[in-house]
Every structure is written in C-alpha cells, then in structure tokens.
Amino acid sequence: MKHTLIFGHKIPDTDSVCAAITLSNLKNELNESSKPYILSEVNRETEFVLDYFEVETPKLLKNVKLQINDLNYDKIEPFKPEYPVFYAYHYMHEKTLRTLPVTDNENKLVGIITMKDIAMNLINTEQKTLTTSYDNIINTLDARPITKFDEIIDGEIVVTAFYFETLKSRNVVDSSSIVIVGDRYDVVELAIENKAKLIIITGNLDIPERLVEYAKNNKVNLIISPYKTYYTAKNISLAKPVSEIMTKTHLVKFYEDTYLEDIKEELESTRHSKFPIIAKDNTYLGIMGRAHLLNPSKKRVILVDHNEYGQSADGLEEAEIAEIIDHHKIGDISTSLPISFRNIPVGSTNTIIYYMYKENAINIDKKMAGLMISGILSDTLMLKSPTTTKNDTEAVHDLARTLNISIHEYCMLMFKAGTSLSGKTIEDVLYQDFKRFDVSSKKIGVSQVFTMGIEEIMNKKEEYIKYIDSIADLRGYYLNIMAVTDIINEGSYMFYTSEREKLVKNIFELKEAYQGVYIPKCVSRKKQIVPSIINALHHI
After folding, report:
1. What does the pLDDT average to over 89-93?
2. 97 in helix, strand or coil?
3. 400 phi and psi, to 5 degrees?
4. Cα(255)–Cα(265) distance, rounded to whole angstroms?
5. pTM (predicted TM-score)
6. DSSP label at 2?
C-alpha cells in the first residue's frame, strides 16, 4: 500500500511544516501509512525548531503530478538472456504474454523479446547454423544426454537425408557439424570419426554401446531426442538463446519517475504497445501497456494549513485529495468525492491537530509536543495575534507542561532565530513568507516579515520598494504589500506597490499613506490584512 503524502503550502512556515509532521505521526499511530513533505526549503525559524527538538526535516516534494510509478503496471517476471527461445515461447504462451523483458543476473534490463520476434525468426531465418549451450538443446528437445564435452555447441545443422556414400564422398559431415540422424549407425559412426560437434539421435532410439565408447574416445557430444527427425530438425532452432533474437537497442523504455505528460508525444509516435519500466540504475521493474494509462492510481494527499490551488503543490488537480486540515478562509479547491475537511477558526493548524490527538487518545511525546507548541506560538505571535483563541492558549499551556519549558523564553529564542536577516537578499526576505490571493480577478501578493527591530529593513527601504514595484510589473500583480511585523511592539510597517498608495490608504483607513507607515496592533495577515484588502477592492 502506498503512503499518503502530507504537506503544507508552497512557502512553508513553522506552522505548516510542523503540522505536516505531527499529523503524519498521528496517522501512522492510527495505522494509516503517511509521510510528511515540504514544497520548498524551510525558513530559519522552522530550521531552529526542527534542530531544537531533534526532528528530521521532511523531504522536498517537487509536485504531485502523475508519474509512471503511479500506474498499476504489470510486474512480469523477467527472463534470462541465456535461456532458450523454446522456454520463452512456452512461458509467454502459458502467461498469455506478448512481450517479455530480459534481464541480466543483477536484474538490469538488457532486452525485450516478443511473440512476433519468435515467429519472424522461425519464418525468415534459414536454420543452417546454431550457437547455444548444450543444456539448452537438451531442454528444448527434452533429450537424453549421452556424452558431454562442450558447454557451448557452435556448428552447422546437418539433417542426414543423403546416402552414406554421398555423405562420405562430399565431406558433408565435419568437426563443425550438428548432425541430426535416426538409427543409421553407419552415419553415426562416420560423424564420430569426423569428430562432429554434436550428434542427435532421433526417435528415442538406443545407440550401440560401441558407438558410445567411440564418441567418448573422440570427445564427441552425443544426445538422444525422443522426437522424430522432422520435429527435432524443426525445433532445434528454438534452442538458441533469447539474447540472439531479442531487441537490444533503441528500446522504448521509461523511468519509473517519468511524468505521464512527458511521454504522451512519444507514445503517440511509436507503434509499440508494451514498454519496460526501469529504475534510474536500469533495474527492471515491470511492463506498462497503453491500457494502464486509462486508470492511474493517483497520489493520495492530505493538505495542511492551506486549501487553495495557488498555494499548494503543482499538479494537485492530478492527485486524490483525501483530507484537509486548515484554519484559513475557504479557498478554491474542489474534490470529486466527499472528504474529511476540518476548517476551524483557531490561530494555528497545530491547535487542530493537538485536539485530534486528544480525540484519538494518542499520546503526544516530547518531540511532537515541541513541534505543536512551536507551530502555535509562531502563528499566533506568542498568543498575541487577534487570531488567538482559547483553544490555542489551552493547547500551548498543556504542551508547555509536557515539555517543562518557559513559553516566553522559548519564544524569544525561536523568534530571534527566525527574524535574523543576516545573509539574506531582498528577494529572500520578501518571499520567505509570501502568499498570493486572487480578489475580483486581480492578483494580490502579501508578504509578511517578522522582526524584533525595524532598522535592518529601513536601512534598505528604497531597495525594497524598488523590488516590490518590479514584481508588480514583471509578474502582473495588481498590488504587493510587504508587512514587516514588529513582534515586540505588536504592529506592522507597510511597504507596497508605489502606484497603489491611494488603495493602501483605503485598506488601512489612513489619513496619510507612505512607504513604511506603521499600523499599530496589526499583526495578522489572515485576520487583519487580507480581509481589509478584500473589502477595499470590492469597493473600487
């Protein structure tokens, strides 16, 4: 059973990353296999939290688009290149296969053989010579071995229809001959005398002991076929190894992590209907047919801390959304079937997950408690944000008791790590917590930067404004706002698209708007900034 993928929004913050981890842990405790992921690199605050509680950073998830490994392709057992074509034919016939993968001893794909390959080989090839193993001939003809001196039999097939004198006078039989003969023991003796490569006695007839001894003395390979001469001659060519007739080059094969959208053109242009699937190291995995593309097994995902396509993983429309846990406004995501959707007006997604643990009577260990409390304190700004509810407060105090930590002291450590702008570019700062919204067909961007002192931003004020304006021009944003939230003083400094000064004035009900204007008691993007933007745009 494949695991469920759990992840937050595209630009992960502490609440979304911690929510993915804590929810995944809960699901696994409930025997629902899952793994947490992130959609981009974590910020410094989140990095501090994960290090502090010694929790591994989730793996990066590029997208949830359909890949070949999402298909229920056939796990056909591969064949070995040294096996006889005879075996391949009967194996394919029994299993009703048209395509058979061929692998080496390390399970690396080396070729493909089809029923058509076998048929065309029998029709088009003059079966004059044969190079194969002694054992392949024994197995193909269900023959009895009498003498064996060579592992590999390489020679020209001779069916002895001539008179003995003709065979002898024309030197038809020599040391490179594979002689097929019935009970014509004079011919057998001649073949042994000329040290034929292999003698096949047909009709399941016993051979005189003196000829067996003669064959041993001359080191001639000798076997007895249970079949008549015609059948033996017709089927000996099937003793050749699969490697001799399989397709080895220009194979149309696909890697397991290839996206279905990337192979569409190739599938349309090829006449093949079956395709081997391999891993990056060329290890064989299975066979895909065109029919497998009709009903792929979509990736099963759970979204935390968001419920909008624009904020989620690329290719989400190709995935199966199983559940959403969020505390934001209802977005634009829709599903074809009913799902579990918890959308509760609290300050943090981790608050919701905390109560889910309680509902299911699952113990919250110290690592999970540390992640939960960090997510809640981060999103509620140490319980000072207007989004804070009594549920958030109750959860934080209970988790703090479990951890035996001071809420204020831990918060200061976390915020100090998260608000440092050292080594960051203007682009890094603006996009570290950036969310896009679509309001009245207008694209809006709101970045929130937390700080414990505004000086670092103010010292580069003009550069920030120039960059904010460039985003509007280059990426088609009607309005960009960067809210620099002062955690200590509980207010935010606003920087915005220059030509939208009048709109910003209306948004925040200001007598005067200017770059870096301070809005006291404004700390929540979700509950204060975004609703104000939406209201102002609706009145344009």
Report:
1. 91
2. coil
3. -65, -35
4. 16
5. 0.72
6. P
Residue predicted with more confidence, 183 or 80: 80
For residue 308, count CB atoms less than 10 angstroms from its CB and return exposed for 0-12, middle for 13-18, buried for 19 or more.
buried
How many other CB atoms are there within 10 angstroms of residue 91's CB atom?
15
Its sign, for the CA torsion 504, 509, 515, 519, is negative
pLDDT, tens only, 289-309: 888 888 888 999 999 999 999
CB-CB contact of 142 with 224 (8 Å): no
Q: How far is CA 372 from CA 38, 49, 387, 389, 417, in A?
A: 17, 10, 17, 15, 18
Q: For residue range 525-540, what is the model confidence (pLDDT) as tens digits?
A: 988 999 999 999 988 7
H helices within 270-425, ranges in order?
349-359, 366-379, 390-403, 407-419
Work out the burial of residue 80: count CB atoms within 10 Å of its CB; fewer than 13 is exposed, 13-18 middle, 19 or more buried: middle
**Looking at 452-540, which runs of residues are DSSP E strands?**
479-486, 491-496, 517-520
Q: Residue 112 and residue 85: Cα distance in Å, rounded?
A: 12
Please, are residues 239 and 130 in contact by the beta-carbon 8 Å criterion? yes
3-class SS at 110? Answer: strand
Q: Is the pLDDT of residue 165 over 90?
A: no
Average pLDDT over residues 176-180: 92
Report the alpha-carbon angle 401-405-406, nearest 5: 110
Closest CA to 14 of 458, 450, 329, 398: 450
* pLDDT of 447 over the 60 cut: yes
Contact 377, 411 (CB under 8 A): yes
Q: Structure tokens of 186?
A: 């004079």
Please provide the average confidence, as pLDDT, over all residues in the chain.
92
Confidence of residue 432 (pLDDT cuts 50, 70, 90): confident
CB neighbourhood size of 261 (10 A): 12
Q: Which residues of 328-357 are buried (b: 16+ CB within 10 A; e: fewer)?
A: beebebeeeeeeeeeeeebbbbbbbbbbbb
Task: Please give the pLDDT value at position 166.
Answer: 65
pLDDT digits (tens, 9 = 90+) for 190-210: 889 999 999 999 999 889 999
CA dist 20 and 368 (Å) reads 11
DSSP string, 321-347: EEEEEE-S---S---SS--EEEE--SS
Residue 465 dihedral angles phi and psi, to the nearest 5°: -65, -40
What is the average pLDDT across 471-481? Answer: 90
CB 299 within 8 A of CB 320: yes
- Tallying the residues shown for the chain, one arrives at 540
Spatial neighbors of 277 by CB under 8 A, at least 6 apart, are: 68, 69, 73, 253, 254, 255, 256, 284, 285, 286, 287, 288
